[in-house]
Specification:
The protein is an alpha+beta fold and about 350 residues long. The chain is built from seven helices and 14 strands.
Length: about 350
């Protein structure tokens, strides 16, 4: 390589000095920024609260205000925690199922055939309404037969009375013996007894005919239709799955509903009779209903380790459907004392 080219590659000493001076300026700026960051980041005694943003200067110039803010935050923290565990005085929250307090299944009083059923699932019925008719042809035939026997018995009684009167006159004239008079009198008594017996049979048959008409015993809703027309029903089960049905329809009062809950053993002490409750159906979370503890089971379930509780719902409406789930909030955490309860 020629000497001229080597000279061209050499760096001028003045350029070296300029570059070295510029580098030192950069190092100095970095050192100043680092020192400033350390100064402001280093903790101080009066820095109880760190505030970021436009209000930092005002907070820094007022240490007393910062300390009072800390005190307010610490004072409100326990209240918030307490509200999270027991909001609105709730002692316990348990899930359960809505049930009808009384489910009524209408059953026949004798074996018979369903001739007509006038309701279906979900229908509203009133007390005394005819809902099912059983076949009454056999009992109506027995009714006519018994009425005929009764008429014949009344004729026999009239004949016996006429015979008794005739024999009595002859016996009074000493034409007939006293024994014939007694026999005639006994025949009259027997005829009357026969009439009484037939009248009893007639009342029984009429009762059976009345039983073929099934009426609703309450104002309620049909929960389930268990039979169809031309189906055999009986008041007794013969066993097995192919036997006749023993119930016709199931009814319940939609205005008499409860929530059935299972409490864990650890929560039993928080619940007592007549305790106020708030019921919220899972299907309608924005609706709440007042209630109270109406029943606590006298015996626990050993396998589950739970105790059954029933909460009566006050003023239920159409949004509460039996067998749907609901949440129950038990209000109040202390049962009344024994002395207060006795008073």
């Amino acid at each position: 390589m020629s000497s001229d080219k080597i000279k061209d590659l050499r760096i001028d000493s003045s350029a070296k000095e300029r570059r070295s001076g510029f580098t030192w300026v950069i190092y100095l700026l970095v050192a100043l920024l680092t020192a400033g960051a350390i100064y402001y980041a280093w903790p101080r005694k009066d820095d109880d609260v760190r505030v970021v943003g436009q209000k930092a200067a005002a907070k820094a110039t007022s240490p007393a205000a910062a300390k009072s803010s800390v005190a307010e935050t610490q004072a409100s923290a326990p209240k918030a925690a307490q509200g999270a565990t027991e909001p609105d005085g709730i002692a316990l929250t348990v899930s359960g199922y809505i049930i009808a307090r009384e489910r009524i299944e209408l059953s026949p009083r004798f074996m018979g055939m369903v001739s007509w059923i006038g309701v279906k699932k979900g229908d509203t019925v009133t007390n005394g309404q005819v809902v099912v008719l059983l076949d009454s042809a056999e009992y109506k035939a027995r009714l006519r037969e018994t009425e005929g026997r009764l008429s014949a018995a009344k004729v026999a009684l009239e004949r016996a009375q006429l015979n008794f009167e005739r024999v009595s006159r002859l016996a009074g004239d000493n034409i007939e013996s006293k024994q014939l008079e007694d026999d005639a009198r006994l025949n009259v008594a027997a005829a009357r007894a026969t009439i009484s017996e037939i009248e009893g049979q007639l009342d029984l048959i009429k009762t059976y005919i009345e039983w073929t008409v099934i009426r609703a015993p309450i104002n309620g809703v049909v929960l389930e239709k268990l039979v169809d027309p031309n189906e055999l029903v009986t008041p007794q089960s013969f066993g097995g799955t192919r036997g006749p049905s023993t119930a016709l329809i199931a009814l319940a009062d939609p205005k008499d509903l409860q929530v059935e809950c299972d409490l864990n053993e650890a929560d039993v002490a928080r619940v007592f009779l007549n305790q106020s409750c708030r019921v919220t159906p899972e299907a309608y979370g924005d609706k709440h209903y007042e209630g109270f503890v109406a029943e606590i089971a006298p015996e626990a379930n050993r396998q589950k380790g739970t105790l059954q509780v029933k909460v009566q719902i006050k003023n239920p409406d159409r949004f509460l459907t039996p067998e749907l789930s609901a949440r129950v909030d038990f209000l109040g955490s202390q049962a009344p004392s024994t002395t207060t309860a006795q008073k």
